[in-house]
Design a protein that fits this description.
- The protein has about 120 residues and is mainly beta.
- The protein contains no helices and 11 strands.
Length: about 120
């Protein structure tokens, strides 16, 4: 079993910053893509940013230039640096990782429990 544990959410004023972390633990053989998604009240979950094991990144248009995703493969951890936060960034942020638990297993998506980010105006 693989567990993803997020941290770093909280309440911040518009224009401020937060840094989210997500560490994978358990039966991890290798991790492929990792990413952050978010879900605001009454809305569908949406992609925020992804990063491959090689470091290639992709961002939603709404966060480009403000958010930066990074990862530490040695620690099985992904980060999301969020700058210039806006009230519309308010959501529960979820970590995602595509994981193989053994060399022969298929790749499975795992999700964290979510961390609340609230940006006040």
């Amino acid at each position: 079993q693989v567990h993803l544990v997020e941290s770093g959410g909280g309440l911040v004023q518009a224009g401020g910053f937060l840094r989210l972390s997500c560490a994978a633990s358990g039966s991890v053989f290798s991790i492929y893509a990792m990413g952050w998604y978010r879900q605001a009240p009454g809305k569908q979950r949406e992609l925020v940013a992804t990063i491959t094991s090689g470091g290639n990144t992709d961002y939603s248009d709404s966060v480009k230039g403000r958010f930066t995703i990074s990862r530490d493969n040695a620690k099985n951890t992904v980060y999301l640096q969020m700058n210039s936060l806006k009230p519309e960034d308010t959501a529960v942020y979820y970590c995602n990782a595509a994981v193989k638990v053994t060399v022969l297993s298929r790749v499975i998506d795992y999700w964290g429990q979510g961390t609340q980010v609230t940006v006040s105006s």
